[in-house]
Amino acid sequence: MSELKAIFWDQDGVIIDTEKDGHRVSFNNMFKEVGYDFEWDVDTYGELLKISGGKERMRHYFTEKGIILEGIPEKDAELLLTLHQKKTAIFVEMIESRKLPLRTGVHRIMREAMEAGLRMGVCTTANERSANAIAKGMLGDINLEFVLAGDVVSKKKPDPEIYLLALEKTGLTADECIVMEDSRNGILAAKAAGLRAVATTNIYTENEDLSDASIVVTSLGDPDGEKGVLKRSDKPFEFDGVLHADQLIKYF
């Protein structure tokens, strides 16, 4: 196997636990602001997360519930884009005001990876503005080579397009890189691009089939904070609740 040279990071659910208390709340605040009389509860949003992309989730839900869509592709796309922009503004304000913290261990292991000479980038279906708010704000001291976000690719995960683009940008081969993901769609996208993955689960993904990931933990862990639990590993792997960059370099 080739030497590990890069880590590609998913954002939502991996870098920051955005889904339940971030994106879901932002969608609901937007729905209320524009006059809709419904909201997405925790379970509903969990089901919608099986669909990659915020505009795509709204389209699915609105179609399923018979809400407002006119059946005219251009008008429907314009409406969904407008709603998503309003939701994104609410979400970005949450990020910029630091109402949502980084997940345990993320900043630590990113610094370790950077000091070890590993290259890093973000590959997410999240809106570009929110992705940059996290990358340039909360992770401002981390050297991220690129942030691939939003509609930079035409197909969302589990399609491998975003990870293939990351490989193209770095000029590296798939066996020189790994992916940090949290969901089955993300893991399948990585696998389809020929990449190996580490999964760090959250409330929405803890029961998903993540067996295609090389390592599955509940958290990256911190020495003086939350400890992770090793759920599975493709080969013997010593894990004391805190995952370190040097362990990943040796493992892969």
Give short descriptive properties of this protein:
alpha/beta; Rossmann fold; DNA polymerase, domain 1; seven-stranded mixed sheet; 7 strands
The poorly predicted ranges are: none
Q: How far apart are the termini?
A: 8 Å
Q: Based on the structure given, which CATH architecture of the largest domain is correct? A: 3-Layer(aba) Sandwich
Q: Main beta sheet: strand number and arrangement? A: 7 strands, mixed
CATH H-level superfamily of the largest domain: HAD superfamily/HAD-like
Computed CA radius of gyration, to the nearest angstrom: 18 Å
CATH class wording of the largest domain: Alpha Beta
Describe the structure.
The protein has 252 residues and is α/β, with parallel strands linked by helices. The chain has two domains: 163 residues, HAD superfamily/HAD-like (Rossmann fold), CATH 3.40.50.1000; 78 residues, DNA polymerase, domain 1 (Orthogonal Bundle), CATH 1.10.150.240. It has nine helices and seven strands. A seven-stranded mixed sheet has the order 3-2-1-4-5-6-7, with helices on both faces. Helix 8 links the parallel strand 4 and strand 5. Helix 1 packs across helix 4 and helix 3 crosses helix 4. It is globular, with a radius of gyration of 18 Å. The model has no long low-confidence stretch (mean pLDDT 93).
Provide the fold topology.
Blueprint: E1 6-9, H1 19-34, H2 42-48, H3 54-65, H4 73-96, H5 106-115, E2 119-123, H6 128-138, E3 146-148, H7 161-170, E4 177-181, H8 184-192, E5 196-200, E6 215-217, E7 230-233, H9 245-251
Parallel strand pairs: 1-2, 1-4, 2-3, 4-5, 5-6
Antiparallel strand pairs: 6-7
